[in-house]
Amino acid sequence: MQFNDIYQVVETEFARTNEIILEQLSSNVPMVEKIGHHIIESGGKRMRPLLVLLAAKALESNEQNHPLLASIIEFLHTATLLHDDVVDTSDMRRGKATANAAFGNAPSVLVGDFLYSRAFEMMVQLGSMEVMAILSNATCVIAEGEVMQLMNVKNPNVGEDKYMDVIQGKTAMLFEASSHSGAKLANASPEQAEALRLFGHHLGMAFQLVDDVLDYIGNADELGKNVGDDLAEGKPTLPLIFAMQNASQEQADVIRQAIRKGGTEDLPKIIEIVQSCGAIDYTQQKAQEHVNQACEAIAILADTPAKQALQTLADMAINRNK
Questions:
Q1: Distances 199 to 110, 218, 227 between C-alpha atoms, Å
Q2: What confidence score (pLDDT) does residue 220 get?
Q3: Which GO terms describe its biological process (predicted)?
Q4: Is the pTM of this model over 0.90?
Q5: Is 91 helix (H, G, I), strand (E, B) or coil?
Q6: Number of domains observed in the structure of the chain
């Protein structure tokens, strides 16, 4: 199964999701629509909405509201992207100028607030307290993860456990909430809901760990963002954390200094260190372990095209270049 085959499993539901997203971007304020369309239509794979739809399809649900839930998830994700790019002072995402680079920080933050608010309006329309409980908790955890990451910037003393806590919050939590809420809306059994929750968690962890790797071995044109962005911002990601613990003292000192000062002037040297000391292989191995756990979690589900699509999605999360 190829990536396009995954979308075909939920083709009708995915098309409806896109329609709802565009409908819900409507606003009496032109700037809201302009920035909303700029980031929503910038070419992302919409993996999190896809998770919602695949979870429902894997449970053979007849519930008609999954496209609405998938749209809510996409709005929450887009709001976090708008805020993150301001915090990180990013200027490129998915090969295009970020909203803050194109329109300024203040409009980007405020439109992010609008998308959060519209997502909760849509949750009310959905009418599921179980789903609202999952998503309201997720937004809190995501915000905490972002704050933890901010506290770790330019701190070379961050350990692996603390870093895993950060990516569980800032990245994996929304993946988890996507598959979990999709299962709950489909009236899953407790065992099925837990299986899909775990699948989303492990998929999100793997996805972020591969992002960490691509920041050092990726291609900017394929990634759609600048290589070395994490180092430029002084973020101690897993490749750097592993390298500081396993490279020579001299190499570790180079990394520590690079994290403290930020910027990319030492990027070629850092890339050489993380590759030579096994940090890239280690991070990829951790990502593979999470993919294995994701696939194990959904072993209890019936063998359907949707389940196969979920397994393919997990495999592709680590075998990608962007």
A1: 33, 26, 29
A2: 55
A3: isoprenoid biosynthetic process
A4: yes
A5: coil
A6: 1
